[in-house]
Amino acid sequence: MPPLRRRLAFGTIAMALFVAVLDGTVANVALPPITQDLGVSPVEAIWVVNGYQLAVTVLLLPLARLGEILGYRRVYLTGLGIFTLASLVCALSRSLDMLIAARVLQGIGAAGIMSVNIALVRFIFPASRLGRAVGRVAIVVGVSSAAGPSLAGAILSVASWPALFLINVPVGLLALLAGSRTLPDTPKSGQAFDLKSAVMSALTFGMLISGVNGIGHSEGLVLSLALIAGGLIVGTVFVRKQLKIAEPILPVDLLRRPIFALSAATSVCSFGAQGIAFVSLPFLLHDQLGRSPAETGLLLTPWPIATAIAAAISGRLADRFNPGRLSAIGLVLFSAGLLALVLVPSTPGDADLVWRLALAGFGFGLFQTPNNKILITSAPRERSGGASGIQSTARLVGQSLGVALVAVMFGLVPSHPLTSALLLAAALAAAGIVPSLLRRYEAPKTAPSAKTLHAEETAAGG
């Protein structure tokens, strides 16, 4: 692609991805004014958050597969259009039912955006610049997910809650206009869409994530465990079905490859560690260390800033050096930063907190970019959608797992829950260091097709 069109195409992806990830967090801050304005209980209003997250999670892999069949550009722009329209409906909602329905629709659109964004990047940038491109995606995701609460608080200080959704409309329209002119057409497999597998995928991830979130929000242990058990049962049947398909919705053909499976697993662990930290740190700063809400927000800012800087640096390095080793270095720094937060003095100064938060954020950013590059380039080119779907799914599963683990720590270690949670986060980050070092990565000159991989694995006995 010509340089100007390439920049505009990536700008489209960045704008849409920013608001899609952001909307997964801003609604949490808006729940109190929503409950007051609509006259509903907090228990009822929680579905404003859960509806969006569930819609995104259950549709990521089916829409990634649909992108391989119909083309990533079509799925992306359709998702962006649905997201933009749903954002307007959210802003105009005057009842809880209408708002929840609009949020589910918004989540469907966000799933279209998130499911194929990395796959599109692979077709926008040449292989020699892919690391830098993936680094930019990591910057967008990291900054939007970390800055969501602060940005939402700033908007709510000058406007009512509908403004949180209304600002998506001009951004979405601009991204649609630019995307329709600049996003590339990608190869289409033309195969039939496996609706039965899509339903099983939705049920598996929907029940698992609902159960994990239920534990995290203390919504009933028996029901949460029942949902998790149901998800595991359906998931077992689902996986067995996918093993018999050459190009499945759940990319078991890719997960059979050790480098891909290790990269996905370490991504879950790192986002789990980040999820634990993002839930624990506000309590640590506000409740334990006595910082005001404004000070807490400002003190958390070094994390996303350091993540953005590290993602930009590691993106360039990942194009020149072994990304597996870069990932391991990032995990070492990430784990060290979390451990340093555990060892923070009882009466720390701001500088004591800032360097620890910056170290953790820098390590997280340094890990994510090369790890994501390995994920996307270790898959055949026509299976980029499956790899992109797994990348986004790993992030959401990890974050949900992190929230649930914090709740578990509050129950198991009531005397020191925050310290225990951060120690667990450091352990999760450290768990991927050795696998990252052991990954043998070579960027393939010509990636084998998914059908070839399936035939080779079948001949070798799976």
UniProtKB/TrEMBL annotation:
The chain crosses the membrane at residues 45-63, 75-94, 100-125, 137-159, 165-183, 195-215, 221-239, 259-285, 297-314, 326-347, 353-371, 392-412, 418-438. The keyword Transmembrane helix applies. It is a multi-pass membrane protein. It holds the Pfam family MFS_1. Residues 9-444 form the Major facilitator superfamily (MFS) profile domain. GO terms for molecular function: transmembrane transporter activity. This is DHA2 family multidrug resistance protein-like MFS transporter. It comes from Aureimonas phyllosphaerae.
